[in-house]
């Protein structure tokens, strides 16, 4: 089994993160991940990259085998995961082209395999703060250094997909004060926490969601629009991730993610 210390789950249009790489097919107890895992080196660090939708974007968000993807990273020895994604904005001040380093999520999905712990030991992992505070701070600092438009916190509401929201749904999400809408953040980040891996989300805002229709210049989102905006900003996201990888300390110190199971299990 090859080894890596940092993992990246690529989103749409972000499959060429690493250069001079080796491809490794991996089989997990939960089935095959979305694609072969690509391992390369960034700033002297071994990095594993896995396109969550598959390299041809053939797997829709509701059909991704999230457990296999996350477990494959664990099998490689990964301790930190960076989870970039394309996302929509629910608020006018969060503009297309902005980056949001999310600190909370709201799950609106259904039927997804979202835990490794189906028994016999009952396990309740805390997700009060679902994203790694240390990686979040590093991501924010790195975005600031690159002079990127970044929001230091935000709540992402995760919808089932593959359809986009109705106007009524989107207006409801907006009325709650949530900033970001996406289809893949859950259960990816929770599964990483269950395996005591650090996880940070970097949401690249590609569009305004339909609930903002009526605001000046805002029209309903389309898949074509999302991909066009992602491609236009892909290089900025790539630079942010590469710079972030170089900043991550080799050892985890006082990180709550590393001890997530310490008080999570119920024994008879």
CATH topology: Rossmann fold
Please provide the ordered H/E string of secondary-structure elements. Answer: EEEEHEEEEHEEHEHEHE
Alpha-carbon Rg, integer: 18 Å
CATH class wording: Alpha Beta
Q: Roughly what is the average pLDDT, rounded to an integer?
A: 91
Q: Give the percentage of residues in beta strands.
A: 15-25%
Biggest beta sheet summary = 11 strands, mixed
The CATH homologous superfamily is called: Nucleoside phosphorylase domain
Beta strand count: 13
Spans with pLDDT under 50 lasting ≥5 residues?
none
Q: Assign an overall shape.
A: globular
Structural class: alpha/beta
Kindly state the percentage of residues in helix. 25-40%
Q: How are the secondary structure elements laid out?
A:
Layout: E1 6-10, E2 22-24, E3 37-42, E4 45-51, H1 66-75, E5 80-89, E6 99-100, E7 104-108, E8 122-123, H2 133-145, E9 150-151, E10 155-159, H3 167-175, E11 180-182, H4 185-194, E12 198-208, H5 223-247, E13 265-266
Parallel strand pairs: 1-4, 1-5, 5-12, 6-9, 7-10, 10-11
Antiparallel strand pairs: 2-3, 3-4, 5-11, 6-12, 8-13
